Amino acid sequence: MTFTATMEALENVRRSTNMSCEFFVEAVAYQQAAIEEMERAVGKLGAVGVMINTFDRNRNVADKAFWPFYEECARQGVAVAFHASGTDTIDVLGHFDNFLAIHTLSHAPEQLIACTAVIYSGLLEKYQDLRVAFLEAGIGWVPFWMEHMDEEYEFRPFEAPLLTAKPSEYMARGRVFVSCEPEEKTLRYVPDFFPEDNILYASDYPHWDGNFPETVSTLANRTDIGDTLKRKIFFDNPVRLYGMKLDPAEYGAGREALVAGVD
């Protein structure tokens, strides 16, 4: 996606909906250009965050070459989200001859790689105001990966010299957000390990596997999680991630009734 196409799309959404938008910055390797476009999108068009592709053939998302961009996002209070491409990006690890297998082995593994890179690199230690999100790969992997990173770090902390705490502690400090799938069964136990204040809703609209328009109702109608958690996922948590100032009453009777619900 080019900067021009992205900016045109952002401007169209802003004009037609009067809503805050996230801004997709794919070419983060071009540091100065990425910073300038981020500043324009946030400062002039009302964007509330940036999104980075998890895949770079030669580097991970926490490569030191990208740190000036993250530093500027932290300085300006702009949230950074990571999203996989959904294709055969981890090609050296496994090839398949159909999209089912390729898509299955794309989003979650890519986020495991991105999460590992962000945490072990010390990016969150270096930039104390940086907020990050790992999107659209489900959330069931998070408790497992937090524990797994802790175990690995215990034996080789010298290879993550910037860390001053266990990886799981960085995950739980309130600056890491992860989106869930509306129907995800593992969602109900994730808050035992990962803060419920940092779980997000992801519609995946308009992708072919997004289950539009039932994603909201699928999560809202679940009986195995409480209304307080639903409100946080739908409203409170994304508002905090992106630093937005919103009134639930501005979003219609249905939305207002949903976010007003408490246990």
Structure overview:
Helices cover about 45% and strands about 10% of the residues. The chain is of the alpha/beta class and about 260 residues long. The protein has a single domain, classed as Alpha-Beta Barrel (TIM Barrel). The protein has a 6-stranded parallel beta sheet. Mean pLDDT is about 85; it is low at about 1-10 and about 15-20.
Spatial order of the strands in the main sheet?
1-2-3-4-5-6
Q: Give the SSE string.
A: HEHEHEHHHEHHEEHHH
Architecture (CATH level 2) name: Alpha-Beta Barrel
Question: What's the rounded overall pLDDT mean?
Answer: 83
Low-confidence stretches: 1-10, 16-20
Radius of gyration: 18 Å
Largest sheet: 6 strands, parallel
Helix proportion range: 40-55%
- By DSSP (H or I, 4+ residues per run), the number of helices equals 11
CATH topology-level fold name:
TIM Barrel
Percentage beta strand: 5-15%
Class based on secondary structure composition and strand pairing: alpha/beta
Number of beta strands: 6
Tell me the number of structural domains: 1
CATH homologous superfamily (4th level) name: Metal-dependent hydrolases
Q: How far is the N terminus from the C terminus?
A: 43 Å
CATH class group: Alpha Beta
The dominant shape is globular
